[in-house]
Amino acid sequence: VLLAGGVRSRPPTSIELEVLDERDTSALTRRSELSETDVFFVALHGGSGEDGTVQGLLEVAGVTYTGSDRLGCGLAMDKEVSKRLFRQAGVPTPDWLVGPQSVAEVERHLGLPVIIKAAGGGSSLRLLLAHDLAELEEAIAESQNWNDLVLFERYHVGRELTVAVLGGRPLPVGEIIPSHDYFDYECKYQTGLAEEVFPADISQDLAGRLQDLSAQVDAALRLRDYCRVDFIVDENDDPWCLEVNSLPGMTPNSLVPKAALAAGISFPELCDQIVSLARNRSLSHSV
């Protein structure tokens, strides 16, 4: 998304987006309306927009863009690699196995219920919760059609909390209260199926611990500008890092803007800060 003349109230038209659909990175600098662009604001979500593909194209084009680079995006998109980096950085994350695995092996190592999800992707797609052996067998069968590495993760009952990080600085903690057992695709995108509370009603100690862990995740995966880190906090107030989103949603109703608003940062101010971070990084590299 190109920000020209400030944050617009409407999304770009299909004609405006055609410029980026030519599969020719030189179009980003050849087109007169883009040749003098200072910063490209990347607000894509999932797929090639978040796995480092688009970021690599922008780097080849030699333009300045917001958000993490292709390395950070790639590390964050691969949930199994992310979890290894969490552990290496001392950030607690639920135990896991990677597929293919038998029903017996998953139950023996992780117990039930258990989460089954694709190692790549986002938006809580290809994410299942198996409560018993029958559901686990069905989930394993379904996962064979995902064309992706399958990750089995220990299920921790608890509160779903999230922390946005802006320029390396954690914002207020938010809580997601889904109507389902977990924050699945329906709860994420259908109105009324999840309540999002900013700031979360938690102790200052827990909030501080979650913010510290989020900053560690941001640094461990070499992310830039902004990200969002998701946790489950169990009944003992122990946090478990589930994943990090290197390019979280940026509509006014998304989680990061809500976290920013809780910190006194309006949506236009948030976008301006993100652009400034990218612009300043570009200027420092050119010196």
From TrEMBL:
An annotated GO BP: peptidoglycan biosynthetic process
InterPro entries: ATP-grasp (IPR011761), ATP_grasp_subdomain_1 (IPR013815), D-Ala_lig_Van_CS (IPR000291), D_ala_D_ala (IPR005905), Dala_Dala_lig_C (IPR011095), Dala_Dala_lig_N (IPR011127), PreATP-grasp_dom_sf (IPR016185)
Gene3D superfamilies membership: 3.40.50.20, ATP-grasp fold, A domain, ATP-grasp fold, B domain
One Gene Ontology term of the molecular function aspect: D-alanine-D-alanine ligase activity
Pfam families: Dala_Dala_lig_C (PF07478), Dala_Dala_lig_N (PF01820)
Residues covered by the ATP-grasp domain: 83-276
Keywords: ATP-binding, Cell shape, Cell wall biogenesis/degradation, Cytoplasm, Ligase, Nucleotide-binding, Peptidoglycan synthesis
Main localization, broad class: cytoplasm
Record carries keyword Nucleotide-binding: yes
Gene Ontology CC: cytosol
Keyword Metal-binding: no
Subcellular location, record wording: Cytoplasm
Family assignment from sequence similarity: Belongs to the D-alanine--D-alanine ligase family.
Protein name, as recorded: ATP-grasp domain-containing protein
Organism for this UniProt entry: marine metagenome
